UniProtKB/TrEMBL annotation:
Keywords: Antibiotic resistance, Cell membrane, Membrane, Transmembrane, Transmembrane helix, Transport
Protein name as it appears in the record: MFS transporter
Cell compartments where the protein resides: Cell membrane
Major site of localization recorded for this protein: membrane
One Pfam family linked to the record: MFS_1
Presence of the UniProt keyword Cytoplasm in the record: no
Organism: Streptomyces neyagawaensis
InterPro entries per the UniProt record, alphabetical: EmrB-like, MFS, MFS_dom, MFS_trans_sf, Sugar_transporter_CS
Amino acid sequence: MSATARNVPETVDDSHSNRWKALVFIALAQLMVVLDATIVNIALPSAQQDLGISDGNRQWVITAYALAFGGLLLFGGRISDLWGRKRTFVTGLIGFAGASALGGAATGEAMMLGARALQGAFGALLAPAALSLLAVMFTDAKERAKAFGIYGAIAGGGGAVGLILGGFLTEYLDWRWTFFVNIPFAVIAAAGAYFVIREPEGGRNRSPLDIPGVVLSTLGLVSLVYGFTRAESDGWGDSLTIGLFITSAVLLAAFVLVESKVKAPLLPLRVVMERNRGGVYLSLGLAIIAMFGLFLFLTYYLQIVKGYSPVKTGFAFLPMITGMIVGSTQIGTRLMTRVAPRLLMAPGFLLAGVGMLLLTQMEIDSSYAALLLPAQLLLGLGMGTAFMPAMSLATHGVEPRDAGVASAMVNTSQQVGGAIGTALLNTIAASATTSYIQDHIASATSRPQQQLVQLQGMVNGYTNAIWFAVGILVLAAAIAFTFVNTGKPDMTATAGTSEDAAAS
């Protein structure tokens, strides 16, 4: 081993002496971003009424955030590589806090939508910077496993926590607090990060910014996310929806072509073409499709069919959160250094699929304790076990200068997966519900019978869509098992040392 290689672990230790303290603030920031993806959903009806937002425009409260966040992620990841991850992270936090304050103080529709778009834009700076900081700070295999176990639990379970917090704030305080609650999160995380994080030297990518790549990727991803969002509200046959998908395909194909030609690409193709990372991005995106669809269905099932309050609905998701935390921090972390990642990811997705399979048995009078609770536990355990190695492997082996954009790809696969899951599975559910009601409404002669048919139609729609989610999780498991072929981490040396030494 060369002197350079021997010196790397010592340098890492010197520059990362506060890395565990830094993890606290990185995790807090990640929790804030993930919470925001769902916390506003429960508050939306109250905000819509107060601000006079029309039914046709209310979806833009969600869509404005999703478009800005999903469209700017690759750009945000490249900025963190160019500008410095710590600086980008702190800037993203401060901007997110400001945008949240604007949203909480909104006096009308335009102010609310602008605040949501700003939240998405600063989130696109913040999220890849957070993950890439972990990637460059935790390089020892055992420490990396623990750090990514915590991060994976937050990434997986934060959305469900958002439902609890959103319900509590909306029911007992005011919908505006679903925005204001971000401010203390962001201020504490920014202050802690500023004083604690010491980013390792030599990881910057100071190449000129790939402007054509930025424009093509941003417009392509915005078209893709908006296409799926519009498909949910206007149907798959809508001319604008089809046009958005075609535009997205053309723009993203042009983006790939440009990236293969320019000297300093926004997304170096080496990041996604490596089979392990490519397998992670694809399988993770598919799993998120299943998960986001499920959040939507369970929320409606519990509130409309079972009559739960917003707070009770939020707490009903606790078993899933518990399962994710246990799966990520206990099962995933303990086994990651002992077995190959695919032997955690594939079984994890399959276990989540078993939990999803149980939910296909939902009926109007299904017992929460007998059906929903065990199903959520299995889902959480499976997803937590799979997410943890996936998050770690998504940035494993990349050159430090590519850590930001590799992290952005993880977030992009999650964001696009969430948009696809909500639109695709909701469309399937709505179609099945309509078909069921048309077939059975004629036999319902009284008002109570008609209401019962409508509720049965809703549940039938949910279970039909959940069958598709089961298939998606099986496909995610197959992709993870086939593409992810790296072995268990080398415990005798710091991860990435040999590559760094060779590069130097």
